[in-house]
Amino acid sequence: MIRKYFSLFLLSLTVATVLAGSLHSRMSEGLSHVGDVAIPSDSAADVLIPKASIVDEVIWVIGDEPILKSDVEQMRMQAASDGIRFKGDPDCAIPEQIAVQKLFLHQAVIDSVDKDVTEADIAAGVEDQINRWVDMIGSREKLEEYKKESITQLRAELHDDMRDRMLVQKMQQKLVQDIKVTPAEVRRYFAELPEDSIPFVPTEYEVQIITLTPRISDEEINRVKDRLREFTDRINRGETSFATLARLYSQDGSARNGGELGYTGRAGWVPEFANVAFNLTDPKKVSKIVESEYGFHIIQLIDKRGDKVNARHILLKPEVSDSAIMVAMERLDSVAAAIRADQVPEMIRKQLITIPDHFTFEDAVAVFSDDKKTRSNHGIMANVNMQLGKNTTKFRLQELPPEVARMVDTLSVGQVSAPFQMINESGKTVCAIVLLKSRVDGHRATVTEDFQVLKDLVLDKRREDYIHQWVVNKIKATYVRINPDYRSCQYEYDGWIR
Fold this sequence. Notes:
It is a single chain. By secondary structure, the protein is α+β, with helices and mostly antiparallel strands. The protein is 44% helix and 16% strand. The strands form 6 sheets. A 4-stranded antiparallel sheet has the order 8-11-10-9, with helices on both faces. Strands 1-2-3 form a 3-stranded antiparallel sheet, with no helix packed on it. It is globular. The two termini are 29 Å apart.
């Protein structure tokens, strides 16, 4: 988002007839102010420019990276749209937040962390963000109406922000990866806490789930495959390029880059995709059609570098019909009724030699569930947070997928929900039922019952302190220039004002 305003900044300087020197020097020097007049600092003696005539202006410079006033306004509008509030004065907090991000991004390049974020990662992150918005607003059509942009446009706009966010997270993870705390430190920390500062542990839930993927008709699958074959023929005939068709038609976040995914190791892609991509040898050839959990792809090799491949692809997703969703919902409704009645459902009785006396949720998971991640664990959902290194079966309500959370919030322990629709991690529509396995009500933490909670608290504090000091040290070693209008702010980090 930030980068697209650079051209606007340069245009404003052209109108003001003060374009001089290299692009680097123009961006780095910025504009200073005297009274109501904006003056380019490298030509103050020659030209006076009324402030009102400037379309955009540099308000901070970090190293050789500018922060524009439009960057701040863009973040302010996005935050307002998402209901995010900033600590303190937004006019101060927002540019500081952008500046801190630039410090992490710069270090990520130095440490080659940027190579750990692939286009596939970014595309998945973008889809996850769009799905969260869809969950909040009700449908993709309503989201497009609210944002006044198509889903394709939203994907393109989210791309750079998502990449930067992932790079910052990766860099922070690298900085704190070796920080540890001992049990003795946790106990000491808890013993020294005033009683009114003992953390409150929110209500936590354990949930079991059965998902059923609505059947996609053969006609719809053939339609998608025929479309991909058409693309392949057009590319082979030289009518158009693979990248052009990817930009126009691919239903993946990589479409904006012509379908290019970046250099990725085999483990970075789902096996079906990786097996084909890594066996391609001719960049002029288009692969056969590949089916994965995301849909159907065609792939084109760009380059191989060691154990990594750079490829582009076109993804098309078959559409699920309303009638198929209805069939899946009715099937799950019957399964839920059988679990509540503790009786084997009629739909599988004929397949059994001996009819069991009981039919539990775990039994239903083994017979019906499509969810690979939970099926082998009796349907129990796992709460995995890669950033925090957290892996548990307990969720706070806001950590569950929104559709699951809405159901869980209405259930008693041991109760099975009605069937509902949701979007899974692959972006597919699935139908599901859940059972609330356990619920631990919110309470003040104790060392015996909530040791892991307290350990995470101490560890987070250590990491937070380390990151804070790293930023302060980085500021000291970085060229910083701040517009006079922003020098009276109370900033979170020391060292900006010199």
